[in-house]
Amino acid sequence: MRNILGASYALGVLAFAGICAIGGLKSALAAPPRLLYVSDPVDNVVAVFSLPDLLLRGTLTGFSKPHGSCSGESGNIWVANTGSRQILEYAHGGTSPIATALDPYGDPFGCAVDGHRHKVGVTNIRDVPSPTPGPASGPGEYLFLHSGTWSTSYDLALLNSDISVGIDPVGNAYIDGLTNSKHFVLAELPSGSTVIHQITISGGTIHYPGMVQWYEDGHYLAVGDRRCDTPRTTCVYHVSISGSTGTIIGKTKFKAYNGHAICDMAQGAIGASGENFLAGGDDESACGYATSSVDRWAFPAGGSPTNSNHATLRHPFGTAISE
To answer: How confident is the model over 113-137, as a mean pLDDT?
Structure first.
C-alpha cells in the first residue's frame, strides 16, 4: 500500500486488511472536505477521490464484489459488499469499517440513505436465505438498516438483477432493475406505505437499469439507461413522477475523456442542490476499450467531463459523495 496524498492533507492510505477486521476508526486528520467513493467489483477495491479535481486520495481493499455505495448527511459511506453479503459502513475519510451488517436475504447490490426514516435502504439482487435465514417471498428484497440492525423488508416481486434504489427528500423510495425475462422495471415504495407499485414509463423506453436518484433542483427522478442509444451507451433520463406514471421529460448524454460517448456508467451520484454536477465511473472495458475512467460532468447539461481520472480503476461501478 502506498501513501498517495498531496502534502496539504494528512489522510494517509485508505486501506484495511480484511473484511472482518473491524477495529477502531482511523479518522482523517485533515481529510479533504468532499470525497468521492467509487467501487470496483472486479478488482475488489473502493477508490477514494477528492472533488472536484478527482485526485486519488486512497484505496480501500479487502472487499468481495463491492457494488452499490451511498452516503448520508453525516458523511458516512455504506458499501454493498455483495460477495460477503454484508453492508459496510465507513466514516468520512476512515480507513476501516465502523459497522458491518450481514444481509439476511442474500446478496446486497444497491443502497440509498433515507433521511426521512434515518435508515439505509438496501436492495438484493436475489433472495438467498443463507447464512442467516429470512422470509423468502420473492427473487429480490428491499430492506431498511438502522444502527446495524435490519428492520422492515419488502418483496421486490419480479425484480431479480441489477436492482438499484434512490430515495427522495420525503422518503419515497424508487427502485429499478430487471425481471427474470430481462425487462426494465421502475417501481416506488411511497413513504409510509407497505406496498411497492410499478411505475409505467411514458415518453420513451428505458432498456437497462443504471442509477436512480432524485434530482432536487429539477424535481424529477434521474434514471440511468446503460443501453440508451446503442447496446453499450449510457444516458440519464429525466423522469417526472405522478402517481404510478413516470414521464420522460429529458435526457442527458455524456462523453468520455477521449471524446466518444461513455460506455457503461452503472451508478452516478448527483451533487447537492445548486451544484449542478454528476460524478460517476465509465467502465470502458464493457465496450472493449482499454482505459476506464471516473468523471465529473455538468448536470443536467452533460457533454464532456469537467474533470477526469483515467489512471485508477478498471471497472468502476458504485459511486457516493461524502462530505
So the answer is: 69
